[in-house]
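Dock farnesyl diphosphate; give full complex structure.
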Amino acid sequence: MENNITIPKHIGIIMDGNGRWAKKRFLPRNMGHKKGAEVFQDITRYCNELGLEAVTFYAFSTENWKRPQEEVEGIMKLFKEYLIKAFDYEKENNKIVFLGDKSAFSGELLDLMLEIEEKTADRTGMILNIALNYGSRNEIINACKEISQLVKEGKMSIDDINEESFSNHLYTKNQPDPDFILRPSGEKRLSNFLLWQSAYAEFVYMDVLWPDFTRKNLDEAILEFNKRNRRFGGV
Ligand code: FPP
C-alpha cells in the first residue's frame, strides 16, 4: 500500500458470492464457504497489518437459517474451525466480538463464542467483529427495547435519548462507526447490515466473488475510498 493513503478506521465487509464461486466449478456450495473462510482469515490478517481499528465481517444473517440444513450445518462447522484459528492467532492481539443474537446458538459453538469474547475482551489490537445471526433492524429494535425498559424503570429520562446514548445499546457499542462498507460479488445491496452505523460510510461494490478476493482487491478498494471526497454533510 502506498504511503500517502488514508486507511479506513473500520471496514465492514459483506462476504458474498461463495455459492456462485462453487457453482462455477461444479462444486458443492459448502466448498465455496470453505474457500470463503480461508479468505476471511487472510483478509483479517491483512487488516491487522494495515493497522485498522476495527473490521466487521458479515458471516451469517438472521435470514440465512432458511438455507438447506446441510449447508447451514457446514457453515456452522466452518465457524467453529475458523473462530478457533482467529482466536489462536495471539500475535495479532485481536479483540473478537460477535454481533448478533446469540440466543439462536447452543452447545459447543455458543461456548466457544462466549469463551472467545471473554478471553479477548482486554486485548488492545484491532477489533474483529463477526456478525453471526445478525440483522440490523433487529439490533435497532433491541436497542429501543433496552432504552424503553430503562426509561420505564426511571433509570433514564426521555431527554437522555440521543445518537450517542442510542449507539451504546447497539452490538457495536464503544466502537468507531464503519467509514467504509465493502461488498464483493457484484450485488449492490446493504442486506440489513449495520444500517445505523453506516450512516456516513462510503460504499464500494466489487465484481469479484468473495472466495477469489485478495489483498490486492482490498488495496484497490481502499484506493477507491481515498478518491471519495468525504464531507459528512458539510460543504
Ligand atoms: C454468502 O455467500 C456467505 C455466507 C452466508 C457464509 C459466509 C461464511 C463464511 C465465509 C465462513 C467464515 C468463517 C468465519 C469464522 C467468519 P452466498 O452463499 O450467499 O453466495 P451466493 O450469493 O453466491 O449464493
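Observed: The first helix runs from residue 18 to 24.
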